[in-house]
Amino acid sequence: VSANSYDEVQDYVSLNRHSVGSQLVVVNSDTWEGLSADQQDALETAVRETREEDRACIEEETESIVEEWASNGGPEVVEDVDVEAFRSRARDYLLNNLEGRQLELYQDIVEFQPGS
């Protein structure tokens, strides 16, 4: 939000966590299949840990930006956001509109999320 200077053009910012960074790791299927189960597990663990560290950095930066806006008269920050309502609507839409490989990829992404 800060890097895009949204504070210059809007009066309100909702902290809905719709975008908290992404780490795209792409591995050729032949390469993946050439890894042992232990190596695959190690790579998946490293990706999850890196994502958690990245999200922690983003959360820290967000806190800093919100504090700066509060002290400098920036946009009003709305923190009481019903995130589950957003997730539920998006989930319903995607499950009802994706097909074939797109649906499989969506399900893979959901499965790989923390807490799943």
UniProtKB/TrEMBL annotation:
One biological process term in Gene Ontology: transmembrane transport
Keyword Nucleotide-binding among record annotations: no
Domain of life, per lineage: Bacteria
Gene3D superfamilies according to UniProt: Bacterial extracellular solute-binding protein, family 7
Entry keywords, A to Z: Signal, Transport
Family the UniProt entry places it in: Belongs to the bacterial solute-binding protein 7 family.
Protein name, per record: tRNA modification GTPase
Organism in which the protein naturally occurs: Aeromicrobium phragmitis
